[in-house]
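LAB NOTEBOOK - FOLDING QUEUE
OPERATOR: T.R.
BATCH SIZE: 2
PURPOSE: Compare the predicted structure-token outputs for two unrelated chains run back to back under identical settings.
PRIORITY: normal
REVIEWER: second-year student, initials M.K.

ITEM 1
FIELD SEQUENCE / FIELD STRUCTURE:
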Amino acid sequence: MPFLSAHPNSQSFILLNLFTFKFRAAVFAVAFAPVEASAEDVAFSSAQKSLEEEKSAERSRKSSSVAIFGGTTQDQSADMQIEGIPYDLDSVGGSVHMGIRVGYEWRARRWPIATGLEFEGSFLSTELNGDVDPSFAGSLEDESITSFHTDMNSVMFFFNGRISLDLRRYRARVGPFLSKLRPYGGGGVGGAQIWFNNTDLTTLDPESTANAAPFATDQFVFGHQWFAGVEYRVNDKVTVFGEFKEINLDSFEETNDLKHSSWLAGVKINYDHKVEADEP
């Protein structure tokens, strides 16, 4: 090779330049190569991101629901008057009370509360038993009613408002069990269609009982109610609950201020609606 023989140091010069080029390329690759995260860092980052997404979705979530419930009455009370004579109403418990609710709920973004609206329909079957007020016993005539019994059936409709304590976003603080519990309370206004049937009367003179005309009712009356209970969220779809309810109906015919209280249990199916985080 004439060129190399003419320049004895040229071969060393070329090798030096080649080494320098490879060294610079290696330094450049190390300096600008992406840093590979450890498995622990990746897992932590993923968990943190999931938690942030869950919180964001929780703050902006709305839901609709359908619930069925049933139970028994605890007691009842009313002021009964027949032909101007007052009667003491026996408190009868253990009657059937069942119904259905359809509702929509909004969860607050910054506070652990949820508010909702509901439409409720229910059926109540009970009986009314009464005896004449003892203070009027001396003024009764032979045809006067001393006691009565009647079956009462009613179909009731109410529009309810409710508020709940929602602790799901505080799961890390209160634990998995308490975070699924939701105490709630509310009230509603509406009315009831009432029927009195199978009425039995007793008069002062037993021979006059057959001639006494039994009273009957087929009437719609307005009313209001309040309730309180606790829900337990089994999963995202299913919730079970227990509840105490008191229903107050307006006066009608012989009955004034009829009141029922019931213990109920039910199952609710939830349909969550996720909303974008930046939605107002």
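ITEM 2
FIELD SEQUENCE / FIELD STRUCTURE:
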Amino acid sequence: MNISLKSKHALVGGSSKGLGNAVAKQLALSGAKVTLVARSNDLLENTISELNKLTDCNHEYIICDYNDHEEYTKIMGDYLENNTIDIRAHPSLVKLDSYLANLKGVRNASENLQGVSVLTPLVINERLSNDLNCKIYLKREDLQQVRSFKIRGAFNKIRSIDSDYLKNKTLVCASAGNHAQGFAYSCNKLKISGKIYMPVTTPKQKIERVKIFGGEYVEIILIGDNFDDAQYEAQKQNTDKDLFVHAFDDVNVIEGQGTIGLEILDQVDKHFDYLKKIY
């Protein structure tokens, strides 16, 4: 979004996660005050807290069950009576290309990743090709230094953040392994402090790899039984000096991962029928 929405008040309906977050963030970065409406307090406080850190505006949220007509009418009626709303946005009604990853961003990510990610080979797998009677190519992202494509998104996200803003900041992420390794490598490479929340069930081998990649720049916190638990704690513990780097729900991360597609298009000289992501 390239226009200024300074002094505007935006009411964003939908979920506290996913596209609702993306819409709210872009409106906030464009200068608008954001009020986010959702059915539950599921990380809503963390979402608004993050928006307040990114901008000088005091954003807020409303918990309101859309399925309870009486409750919805009363809560929203009272709010609208006492507040002037300039923009009403629901994720499903917003032009998506204003808020989501795009080709220009992927090309910028490719430049950011020069000297960090490697151009991995695209090789034909003879056994699978013979078994399925077609040509199957594998993009060997396991040959990246961190053994997965996650280095692309993590590094592009961190590299895209203004260096002055990062002064005296600690980056935070949650991951069960692969994002953590890319995040740790990026923190070490860019000499930025980071905290990594990982489930207690994470294999010891992955934890050790994260330590190696992050060196003195990262702190590992083992908490929760799964990724969702670790992410919840990571966002809950956020302070004004922290900045959360999501494993996948972030435009810069998506554009970083999208550089794989650019490489594939350069490496394939024939039409391909199907593209499948394999972890």
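REVIEWER COMMENT (ITEM 2): The chain is about 40% helix and 15% strand.
FOLLOW-UP: none requested
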